[in-house]
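Page header: ASSEMBLY MODEL / two components / 849 residues total.
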Amino acid sequence: MASISVLITNATVLDGIGGVFTDSSVLLQNGKVVAIGKDLSVPDDGVTVDAKGKWVTPGIIDVHSHLGVYPAPGGTAHSDGNEATNPVTAEVWAEHSIWPQDAGFQRALAGGVTVMQILPGSANLVGGRGVTVKNLPSATVQDMKFPDAPYGMKMACGENPKRVYGTKGGPSTRMGNVAGYRQAWADAQNYQRTWDKYYVDHKAGKKDLKVPKRDLKLETLALALKGEILVHMHCYRADDMGTMLDVMKEFNYKIAAFHHAVESYKIADQLAQAGVCSAMWADWWGFKLEAYDGIQENIPMVHAAKACAIVHSDSDLGIQRLNQEAAKAWANGRRAGINISQADAWQWLSANPAKSLGIFEQTGSLEKGKNADVVIWSADPFSTYAQAEHVYLDGALIYDRNDPASWPVSDFELGQPGEGDSK
Amino acid sequence: MNKLIKYSFLGSMLLTQVVDAKNVAIVGAKVHTMSSQGTVDNATVLIKDGKIQSVMEGEPALAGYEIIDAKGKVVTPGLIGASTSLGLVDVGFSAGTNDSNSSLTSISKTGAAFDVSYAINPESSLMAIARIEGVTSAATSMGRTGQLFNGQGALISLGDSSDPIIQGRAFISTRLGNNGADTVGGSRSVLWVSLETALAEAKFAIGKSLTPIDEWHGELSRADIAALIPVVKGEVPLLVDARRAADIRQVIALKQRQPQLNIVITYATEGWRVAKELADNNIPVILDPEANLPFGFDQLGSTLENAGRLAAAGVEVSIGMETHNIRLARQHAGNAVANGLSWDQGLAALTINVAKLYGIDDKLGSLDSGKIADVVIWSGDPLEVTEAAELVLISGEKVDMHSRQSKLRDRYLKLQTDKPMQYVRP
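Prediction written out in full:
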């Protein structure tokens, strides 16, 4: 897609890091954000988009998606998200399962999502590597991968692993889960020591050295221990999170974010201190026992405790309206006396997700020099009625609600009822 | 025995409270009556003995009424959960008994006989969580029986009452799409013959005695027959899950063969493709307007515009297919409005249209004189995600605007350091 110079004018602009600029312009050039201001001009070969009455924000980043690995249509043929054959499968990579023809990608695009992390499911203690992709309709995942983004690694607390493995040799309890994580980390430490020793010996010129055999499972775990792969952990209950903070200290690694985290509000101060983000829904609760204490003020309460709050979807429907998820959380927080500005709340959708994915230097805010991942909303995006009208990725207009002929249509939907329809 | 006495005592107490209820006047709001009266600005809603007395413009003399100042607010009828399992489930998954699901049993060969009236728990935490957000009544039924029908559903009030049933045995649901075929025989070829057989046997049995000593050689159990007779007579709606256009056309053809059937289509994912036929045949739908992905080969034409297109063709649309989060039905309706449904139809889809399709629009669904006073005072447009229910009345009684969730919030709103949180009572 061509990236041209674009000047968006007369808009209400949220820069994604707490700033709000009324009646302002945003200039995008060479795929980057150049400036937000009042008196900007566009080069002759560029275009001006009058966004009077409209809002401009950074593109939404979803840290928890299963698009492509659990695509629509469902069924066992498409069930590629959980390698549920062993409780620790750090060796598998979500990107090897992604089917880019999942129509969910286009739907998410129409919801203003420019970047997402696609994760393995939560059946396993360690589910494998997640991958950060740009939401560009593509034939292969290679064309979607976010350049230089670190890999994620999915881990899971609580009910799911013990349910899946309870009748398959274990773990069948939470304590069994924790023993499983700890043993995996211990094995990874041992593996790393083997390689460290090899490198030392090699450097010392030792003769007849045998190169250790690569172990794909332990290699990923070892990179996570080093912090080169970011740990994203599905965890609902406060006590499960507390346990994982212990494991984190024991093995000296970092958890980038607890995902779902429906009880983060109970220990938000500890999460702030530990520097672990919480990726949350606005109001999902009760579909399992570990989600029974979910409340609608979780996100603002985490934010108020100065912990890192993220709005995530884990859903091919939820990903289409993450702005509404943030809006609900924002409004529920205000009713509970937590006054957060809309501009600050947008950090939940772009900046904080980008930080937890290790890509904040490239995207996640409308700061000079960052990727021009931008959404023009038809109205205040905290309204149910607001729609993403223009979505720019690296400065290229990849979705234009007002031009149906330009909409991407997945191969799967071609020649089917409703092809090219307003979806 | 003790328990029974206690319950009936409690029941009579509540009854007394309703009779003695203060008369209430809600003053100053913009009121969407959902009746022929339409929307009234700066209105007064008068409530007497738990019923709507009248809605009028301005503020009359109000001696004897408790006045609720609602200036700048929006008032609507209580929302009716169109398709839920409220009262049947606390946590559905790996957490003990779940009355919304069942296993096979010899008392029923089709699942038609199962009756949720016996299973409703009005004290389930889901009830308060839903009602303080404006959901004041609901249709509730089983979600899965593993058989042709998902049992007989009930219409319930979400009030804090020992007797939540508005109407038991109020509808029967079945699934005639991919999931129905997967459950019954693995093919629509089996599924439809099963359905036709069940309906035919019930029709045959009308007026016949089916006591245990009477001869009966039908496929269905006697309990199933008893449940299905009101359906074939058209006295009880048959809710049919049908998603692709071809399935919906089959359902329309069934209605044309048996016009007395009171059929409602649920999901109706490709309903927009046969909207006119649905309208012509007077078949209303309950749908999830946000379901816009081809989740199965019977949902390829899914679109966010389904609700708007159906309503534009004259189909009566209801919205609200959820249980734990039935409170989000208004967000679903708002998204339907964002994608082509008129705002009025969006609110109707949560109120009067639901009441109509279950045949309880003489009691609920609009703020008409004589109807049950289920009323919600909103901070603003109820279809906006940032607005909220500020006060809810059920049968004219103000409900306690707390839930288990609001208590959890209030306990943890300020994290204490001097004592463990379990000592904090919100």
